[in-house]
Amino acid sequence: MKGGAEEARYRSCGSKRRYRSQGDALDAALLAGVERERAAYRCRYCGQWHLTTRERGDPPRGSR
């Protein structure tokens, strides 16, 4: 089962850009011109910030 957990971690963190702060992540979205389509979240694996397309009020994936 460890292989599945490692794969989930890679999909959740390893394949994404990391930002040191929420502000850095949102600035990157702004520079890319997609700030309205992105939100930033703190990663439970690396502790840094990633961008997501999910809106802040949307429930987490898999909980619908």
Classify the beta-strand content into a percent band.
Answer: 5-15%
End-to-end distance? 25 Å
Shape: elongated
Q: What is the string of SSEs from the N terminus onward? A: HHEE
Low-pLDDT sequence parts: none
Helix content: 25-40%
How many domains? The number is: 1
Total of DSSP H or I helical runs spanning 4+ residues: 2
Number of strands: 2
Class from helix and strand fractions = alpha+beta
User: What is the mean pLDDT?
Assistant: 81
Taking Cα atoms only, what radius of gyration do you get, to the nearest Å?
A: 13 Å
Largest sheet: 2 strands, antiparallel
Strand order of the largest sheet: 1-2
Q: How is this structure best described in words?
A:
This protein has 64 residues and is α+β, with helices and mostly antiparallel strands. The chain has one domain (2-52). 38% of the residues lie in helices and 12% in strands. The protein has helices at residues 2-14, 22-32; strands at 39-42, 49-52. A two-stranded antiparallel ribbon has the order 1-2. The two termini are 25 Å apart.
